[in-house]
Each structure stands twice: as C-alpha cells, then as structure tokens.
Amino acid sequence: MAVIERQSQLSEEISAADSRPAWLLAVHKVAKQFGFAHVSLIISPTVNDLLLAPLVVESTISARFVREIDAHHFLPLCPVIPRLNRSLLPQFWSVHDSVPPFPDEMRRIMTDYGIACGVMIPINAPSGERYIIRFDGDTTQPCQSVMNALGMIGLHAYDVYDSMKRNEMAPVRTLTKRELEVIRWTAQGKTSAEIGQILSLSDHTVNAYMNNAIKKLDCVNRTQLVAKAIRSKLIS
Fold it and tell me: How far is the CA of 227 from the CAs of 19, 52, 88, 196, 234, in angstroms?
C-alpha cells in the first residue's frame, strides 16, 4: 500500500476512536504499520523537568522502563530534547549515532527494552502547551515520505485526542458552586459531617451534593471524583 493511502486509512481509524484506550490502540497500530513498537503522547520536557513519569499522558511503553530511566535521572541528559525544542519538524533519533551521544547506561537500558530509535513529533496545543507524539522501536531510519506521513498522522492524532479530552471535560461546566465547595473540602480530607459544619449544611445535604457531582463527572466514588476534579483543574 502506498504511503499516502496508508496515511489516509490510519487517520480514519484514529478519527473513529471513541475513547482514550481506543485512541491509543489506533495510534499504536500506526506505530506498528511503520515498523515501530511503541507510541506515546507526552508533555514536552523543559529544562526544569527531572523525571519522565509525570510527563507521560498516554503510552504503550512499559512503566518499568520509565521507572528505570527516572531512577537514574536520565531525562535532563537526553540529547534529543534540546534539538526537538528548537524545531517544529519531526525528528528521527537513534541511540547509536546521536550527537551528542546518549549516556552509556541510558543507551543500554533503552536498547534492552527495544527502544533504540524513534520519531518525535512536536505539537503546539491551542492552550499554549507543547506536547510530543513519539514512535519508538528498533528499526531503520524512515525515508522522507514516511517522516512526512508520521508528522501528519501525529498532528491529526493529537487533534482527535484533544477534542476527546475537551468532550470529557464538558460536564465540568454543570457543577454548581456548592458542589465545587463540597469537592474542595473533600479533597482536604474532610468528612461529610465536618463539611456540613463548615458550610452550615446537614450531612444529608452534603452527601446529596457529593452524589450529584459524582454523577455529573461520571465517577464511581469520592476518590475518583476528587482525582478527576483536580485533573480537570476544577480544584487545586
């Protein structure tokens, strides 16, 4: 199949994803179609970032690999990141011929996990945040037509993901002021009785606000509600 035809087909499959797991599965298929083993969406590292784990949004890479990289604080030593931050174009990298070189132990860990090269696609989000879509594995350097296709697919994949995320957050706008207050106090470890005393409400009323918020944010319990509220920046 020609590269342009494959690009169109894979982009359609990404567009059809109706959940984050389905999205990751579709983008992972892109990686495998072009000879890579893994795909990741990460927040683009800055000079102040020491660890990779907090930056990973979605990934098929083993969590154990991320832990090993972070155990050695290798993220600031990655020679690819500065180059990527200077360009808006997709970048191919390899642990074998990078200039400057990867640290020896970092190179060993990466090759042990089958992550010896990859393509990194920078994404400038409408919010002003910067992301990277990565295709990682152990293969030969793609030709320019494949690099172009991966770049276009990467941009499309982020657009689909961002739209999906915004749709997930849509119910946030329906929360009332009281529901937000109850969530904030719950996040601080307060019980329903304590929240009732603070807000001059009965336990029953506090629980009613809590249950309404749980339903609106499609959660199953208070713990998930608080986590989703923090992730959605409803509370800090």
Answer: 19, 21, 33, 21, 10
Q: Which pLDDT tens digit goes with each residue over 30-47?
A: 999 999 999 999 999 988
Does this model's pTM top 0.90?
A: no
Q: Which residues contact 165 (CB under 8 A, 6 or more apart)?
A: none
Q: Looking at the domain assignment, is residue 159 inside a domain?
A: yes
Residue type, 121: I
Q: Considering 125, 154, 169, which residue would you say is the last residue of a domain?
A: 169
Do 73 and 156 lie in a common domain? yes
Report the CATH number at residue 52: 3.30.450.80
Which positions ≥6 away from 119 have C-beta within 8 Å?
A: 36, 90, 91, 92, 93, 134, 135, 142, 147, 150
Rounded Cα gap, residues 12 and 21, in angstroms: 16
Evaluate if residue 60 carries a pLDDT over 90. yes
Task: Give SS3 for 46.
Answer: coil
CATH number for the domain spanning 221: value is 1.10.10.10
What tens digit of pLDDT does each residue of 86-141 get?
888 999 999 999 989 999 999 999 999 999 999 999 999 887 889 999 999 999 99
Residue 168 pLDDT > 80: no
User: Which residues on neighbouring strands pair with residue 150, listed in sequence order?
Assistant: none
48 and 153 together in one domain: yes
pLDDT surpasses 60 at 171: no
- Same structural domain for residues 35 and 91? yes
